[in-house]
Amino acid sequence: MVNTFPSTPADHLRARLPRSLKRLADLAYNYWWCWAADQVSLFETINPDEWDRCGHNPVVLLESVSYERLTQLSIDPYYLKRINALVEEFDRYMAASDTWASRVAPQISKKHPVAYFCAEFGIHESLPVYSGGLGILAGDHLKSASDLGVPMVGVGLFYRQGYFHQRLNRAGWQEDYYIDNLFDRMPVELVRDAQGEPITIELQVRARMVKIQIWRVQVGRVALYLLDTDREDNDPIDRWLTGHLYGGNQETRIAQEVVLGIGGVRALQALGIEPGVYHLNEGHAAFCLLEVARLEVQKTGKSFYDIEASVRDRCVFTTHTPVPAGHDVFSADLMDSFFAHYWDQLGLSREQFLALGARRLGDPWEPFGMTVLALRLTRAANGVSELHGHVSRTMWTVLYPDRSEDKVPIGYITNGVHASTWTAALMSDLFTEYLGPDWQTRVLDPDVWSKVDQIPDEELWWRHGVLKERLIAHARYKIKHARQNRGEDWDFVKAADHILDPNVLTIGFARRFSPYKRGNLLLRDAERALKIFGNPERPVQIIFSGKAHPADEEGKRIIQRLMEWCKQPDLWNRVAFIEDYDMYTARKLVQGVDVWLNNPRRPLEASGTSGQKVCFNGGINCSVLDGWWCEGYKADASGKGINGWAIGENANTSDQNLQDKIDSDSLYQLLEEEIVPLYYNQDQNGVPHGWIRMMKESIKSNSPAFNTHRMIADYVTQVYAPGIQAKVALSLAKVPS
Ligand SMILES: *Cc1c(COP(=O)(O)O)cnc(C)c1O
Fold it and tell me: Cα–chain-centroid distance for residue 63?
């Protein structure tokens, strides 16, 4: 049958492309391209300026670039060769049936995939429905699941305006603004039925029925479904239910979590997908458990308590929050206004229903906790690092009064990062040469990584230097624009062209500016810091980036403090702040810095992943022993770091002020006595062999452990399909080439 009209957005785009470039439409509508080998040049080559202007969105690029330019490319044999090779690889990837998961865990079938629920997904900067670490982790989870062939679908929300954007005013104060996501121009597709009508589901939110439509994002072999209430047939207020990520008050929050959890289950049902496992990534999605239970009660006619075990059997939970106050809880009042119509359908009384989320039974003032609900109704729960697993068991003993703390059933699977997404193409290329062309599929194998020793120092140093230059160019560009937009003095705007120096030891610090992350710890003794950074012989420079949550006044004050520090005459070219942190700036940073600094208040960093991204690019971590770094850091017999540095060792006190002093003193001392001397001990060609030894140790020891292929293998063997021999699974961890 011949289609006489473009039926999907990809068809529509294809129709516009010259004959030899038609397959670009398929690449544009599958985010696989963003971790493919040719990611740098594939779309950017078409028109670099336009590429930046459209936020690295390939659909917008291909729709807006001139037909003249497209036909120019369409006769360029070099470009065509590259595209054809990439398309071939893509087709092979999409069609492969002999995958790691198909061999190791055939019981997870395409018919009954894992449904992975999360409030945010960080796939790429052109799909801004993420705020930070949780979302990036979720994106990397889907990418590795796709690579390893784990049948999986993602479920999230499609926020009309995503997370807020950050702009700093002249006083260094963060201002927030929002930009509309233009769904029609994004690499996503509205899911439609055979008649071409959008598939919708209905959901009662407070007193009204809300209609929800579903968008599909293709992430390699994995489909990510995003729920959207912005439809004309909804009440104007309900259209904004999926307006902002983490934007509103408790009332918006619970409404969004109802849409995600209950709506998510209904959406999968409407799509004909019957998950074998529901994986709730953080408590936001825990209402999903109620809907799974409701469907079961309806189907079987049994009571809630009779089907409870069968719900638990299909559901698993990952917790991410190491402090009690960080877990979502809702008052009984709020629960009444959202669920008064619902508990009947479960065959429960109000008291029985509210008890599902109560930490202590029988306490009428107990709020409804999402983590409590999740722990009660899932068969497996885990934290995201060894230390966080321990902290979580302590925190939740209250739910298991008949068990000792070490028997609390919360394990851990340490987070990782998706190697192909975060490794610079220039490094990836080097690894291909020295570790072998299959290093990405054998990323778990320490033997592969041991070959890093064979890379000549000069070669590694040269490539790292180029990536550092790239980072500095990005920083200058962003800072110049920010100053211009702020209406700063023209001399000050122009000075941005000269800040930072590729020959200077460069530290990166980028993450959310939550007070516990102590973004200004380095300034605790401003004079000592000035001596380190302003040293004329052996200077140090630092690049900051990150947002404070709009309601976090203290976080905003920390940013303001940094902006004041930037303005000191001695430091004008040594300290930089890049506004509006996103995945693009993150890539430039983790690929270009010498040292990645992380100094949270222990043990509040559940895992952290940005430091892991740095390892794949030859950066070295200098971090408090918290989260993943407790497992990554290696020291020699004398206590000196081999693959990075540990701030403050394990010293712990509950006096925050004292802890800040201990940790900042330790950080200054590390910089003065170890980091700066090691970096500047260079041979006559400017190559620091001692430093490079540590770079190689960092790459070798961390890369095989802290990647999402290892993490997915752990989830498959320990959580999704427990009982598989983990060792067997790991040795088989290869993706089809
Ligand atoms: C990796 C990443 C994070 C997480 O950083 P942490 O240091 O682990 O908190 C946050 N935001 C972006 C954009 C990232 O790429």
Answer: 28
- What does the pLDDT read at residue 724? 62
Pick the atom of ligand 1 nearest to 613's CA: 1
In this structure, is the dihedral angle defined by the CA atoms of residues 44, 50, 52 and 56, taken in order, positive or negative? negative
Show the tokens assigned to 378: 């899932």
Atom of ligand 1 nearest to the CA of 609: 8
Beta-bridged to residue 506, according to DSSP, are 541
Residue 85 CB neighbour total at 10 angstroms: 12
Task: Look at residues 416, 337, 410 and name the one whose alpha carbon lies nearest to residue 380.
Answer: 410
Q: How far is the CA of 523 from the centre of ligand 1 (A)?
A: 22
In the prediction, which pLDDT does 722 show? 84
CA angle at residue 432 from 429 to 437, to 5 degrees?
135
Residues 6+ apart with CB under 8 A from 248: 256
Measure the CA–CA gap between 392 and 405, rounded to whole angstroms.
10
Give distance in angstroms: CA of 194 to centre of ligand 1. Answer: 40
Give me the pLDDT at residue 568, please: 85
Distance from residue 97's CA to the centre of ligand 1 (Å): 33
Distance from C-alpha of 316 to C-alpha of 378, rounded to nearest angstrom: 5
- Give per-residue pLDDT as tens, 177-201: 999 999 999 999 999 999 999 999 9
Question: What residues line ligand 1, using a CB cutoff of 6 Å?
Answer: 132-133, 136, 511, 581-583, 586, 608-610, 613
DSSP summary character for residue 504: S
In ligand 1, the atom with minimum distance to the C-alpha of 510 is: 7
Which amino acid type is present at position 289? L
Q: Output the six-digit token pair for 169.
A: 């005013």
Q: What is 522-550 written as a DSSP string?
A: GGTTHHHHHHHHT-SSS-EEEEEE----T
The CA distances from residue 9 to 20, 63, 354, in Å, are: 19, 11, 45
The Å distance, Cα 29 to ligand 1 centre, comes to 25
Residue whose CA lies nearest to ligand 1 atom number 12:
132
Distance in Å, CA 510 to ligand 1 centroid: 7
As a whole number, the mean pLDDT across the chain is 94
pLDDT value at 701 more than 90: yes
Contact 335, 354 (CB under 8 A): yes
C-alpha 590 – ligand 1 centre gap (Å): 10
Sign of CA dihedral 255, 260, 265, 270: positive
Distance 690 CA to ligand 1 centre (A): 29
pLDDT given at position 634: 97
**Counting atoms of ligand 1 from 1, which one is nearest the CA of 607?**
8
Do residues 432 and 460 lie in contact, with contact meaning Cβ atoms separated by under 8 Å? no
Residue closest via CA to ligand 1's atom 3 equals 133
| DSSP H helical ranges for 206-327 | 236-239, 250-258, 264-270, 287-300, 304-314
Return the bridge partners of 576, or none: 543
* Per-residue model confidence as pLDDT tens digits over 279-290: 999 999 999 999
Tell me what pLDDT residue 734 has: 39
Q: What is the DSSP letter of 35?
A: G
